[in-house]
Design goal:
This protein is an alpha/beta fold. Helices cover 44% and strands 14% of the residues. The protein has helices at 17-23, 28-49, 68-91, 107-120, 136-154, 163-167, 215-227; strands at residues 9-13, 53-60, 95-99, 127-134, 180-183, 202-204.
Length: 237
C-alpha cells in the first residue's frame, strides 16, 4: 500500500557516471555499467513502495555531441538493459514508456525499446519513463506542432490554448506532474529535463555520483520530501 505522503512522480537525472569512472581509473563505459547497477535497485525499490511514476534521464538530445564510440556503447547498453531487466519489470507489473524521439536510435536500441513498451503496455503497476533522445524544448515544439496539425485538420479555432491542450500532447500525457526531482553528483541544473512537468517539483541535489547512489540515499531524499511544505504558489497563513 503506497504511503500517501510519498511523491507520486519522481524524476532522476542520473549524473556522474563519467566522473565516477575517472575517479576509479576505469573506462567511461564501466561508469555507465555501474550506473545501471544503481538504477536497477532504485527501480525495484520505487516499485515496491508504491511510487506511481519514475522518470529517468538516460540520453538527452544534447548527448549526441559525445564521442561516437561512447554513443555506440550506450546504444548497446540500452539493448542489454532491456534484455536483462524486462522479465522482472513485467512480472512486477511495471509499465514502460519511452520519452523522446526514438527514430534517431540505432535499429537494435529502437527495437528493444519498442518491444519493452509493447510487452508492458497492459501493466497496471509503476509507470517507468525512460528518456531517450529527449529534450524538454523539443518536447514543447513537438506538442505545439501537434496542436497546429489538430487545428488544421479540424478547422482553425479562435479559442486560446490552455495548459491542458499542451499537456495532452506531451510524452507524459495522463501522468501526474513531477513531485520530486533528484540530480546526483552535486550539479544544480535541470539540463532540459521535464521542464514543464517540473514546474512545482521539489528539487534535491545530492553530492554522490550516480554509481555510488544507494537505496539508503534515495530513502533520505524521500524522507526529506515528506517533511517539505508544498504551497504551489499559495501560502498557509
Amino acid at each position: 500500500m503506497p504511503n500517501p505522503g510519498l511523491p507520486r512522480h519522481v524524476a532522476i537525472i542520473m549524473d556522474g557516471n563519467g566522473r565516477w569512472a575517472k575517479q576509479h581509473a576505469f573506462s567511461v563505459m564501466m561508469g555507465h555499467r555501474k550506473g545501471v547497477e544503481a538504477l536497477r535497485e532504485i527501480i525495484r525499490y520505487s516499485s515496491n513502495i508504491g511510487i506511481k511514476v519514475l522518470s529517468l534521464y538516460a540520453f538527452s538530445t544534447e548527448n549526441w555531441s559525445r564521442p561516437e564510440a561512447e554513443i555506440a556503447a550506450l546504444m548497446r547498453l540500452i539493448v542489454e538493459f532491456f534484455r536483462s531487466e524486462i522479465d522482472e519489470l513485467h512480472e512486477n507489473k511495471v509499465r514502460i514508456r519511452i520519452l523522446g524521439d526514438i527514430n534517431a536510435l540505432t535499429a537494435s536500441a529502437r527495437d528493444a525499446v519498442i518491444m519493452a513498451q509493447e510487452r508492458t503496455r497492459g501493466n497496471t503497476g509503476m509507470q517507468l519513463n525512460i528518456a531517450l533522445n529527449y529534450g524538454a524544448r523539443d518536447e514543447l515544439i513537438r506538442a505545439v506542432n501537434a496542436l497546429i496539425a489538430d487545428a488544421r485538420d479540424g478547422g482553425s479555432s479562435a479559442e486560446p490554448l490552455t495548459w491542458k491542450d499542451i499537456e495532452h500532447h506531451l510524452y507524459t500525457k495522463g501522468q501526474p506532474d513531477v513531485d520530486l526531482l533528484i540530480r546526483t553528483s552535486g550539479e544544480q541544473r535541470l539540463s532540459n529535463f521535464l521542464l514543464l512537468q517540473s514546474a512545482y517539483a521539489e528539487l534535491f541535489f545530492p553530492q554522490k555520483l550516480w554509481p555510488d547512489y544507494t537505496v539508503a540515499d534515495y530513502q533520505d531524499a524521500l524522507a526529506a520530501y515528506v517533511q517539505r511544505e508544498r504551497r504551489f504558489g499559495g501560502r498557509t497563513t
